[in-house]
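This week, work through this protein record:
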Amino acid sequence: MQSHPFVLGANFQGGETIVAYPYDSLRRSAGYQHGDPEDEPQVVADESLFRWLAVSYASTHLSMVQNLHGSCQGDTPSGGHGIVNRAKWKPITGSMNDFSYLHTNCFELSIFLGCDKFPHQSELAQEWEKNREAMIIFMEQVHRGIRGIVKDQQGNAIANATVSVEGINHDVTTGLSTQDSSPPPPSATEINEVEINDNNGNDDHHDYNITPDNHYNSHNAKVHHTLVRLVAHRDGAVLDTWRFHGLHPGL
């Protein structure tokens, strides 16, 4: 995970029909002692994005959101929406989902495919049909967000640079390929500022809007009729080495 900068992941399980998103652990506050009342689960900075990703799978699964009359265990943890925060449902410690979010750029979910953990061979074709479209739609979410290449003033790519988006308390870093992907919240139409830190004491701030358009210019790259307008500046000078492109999650 740390050698390859994945941005989206899922693990498939059984025993329930639901999509669970992080945090998976309760992540108790500092000073908590055994016997104290349980804390409310901490919420990830990107909860709206995680919920969007979870809904993208659950809503296109053929039966997940039809589970309105109780889950496999008799309750209704998802409220009929097919998604749940794992820490509020069945918290676990040391999950891959939490590790991926806290230590890599990857957003990972747990997808519970059905009540039967070990379906019979004769049922596999039906299970595939239930999940096929949902898997495709989920993988397509990797194209949403903002992507770019971090370069120095000489045009050389910079690895391990930190990318911070204003309003989201969760940074991402560029990998060995030097490309980062920073998805905005599902409702975002404008992000005021992105800060780039090459971890050598050099910071850049980048202002841009995500707007529909049909043309290019030196700071624009069009993808599926969505344009990102970028102005990068350092000490008042506009840099021409930045070109971002992305998709608005509402389109």
About this structure: The mean pLDDT is 71. The domain at 8-143 is CATH 3.40.630.10 (Aminopeptidase). Residues 124-140 form the longest helix (17 residues). Residues 28 and 182 are 28 Å apart (CA to CA).
